[in-house]
Hints:
Helices cover 76% and strands 0% of the residues. It is built from 3 helices and no strands. The chain has helices at 12-56, 60-83, 100-128.
Amino acid sequence: MELCPLVGRIPQQRGIWISQEVASCQQELERCKGEHANLQMWFHEEYSAAMDLFMGSKDEDVLYFGLLRAHQLYDWMTAWKKDIVQVPIAPGAPSWDSGGELEEFFELEEAGLIAAVDQAIVELDLDSE
Length: 129
């Protein structure tokens, strides 16, 4: 454990308190790294499940809910990326930048994927009437 460089220049009781604070901060940083990695792993699993549901469904209702879930995850990802950018990540965890597939998917969506899905749903509803 690395001690604060000021420990030798301050009273002993205060130095003990500072070294305990440093140790606590180091432990908290390690915990935050693990939580950051857990959040990213959870996100990637949820995203994979939502996209499997969306891409593999033949039912328009299921397809729609898969797409809604993907949208929700995308919104969360963009919020989390900017909020936790300062928190280091544990080695071996997926990075937020590995969500390029998600970014690419939503660029396609902005180009008209939602409109196409909505149109297909309307057409299916009209055909069933």
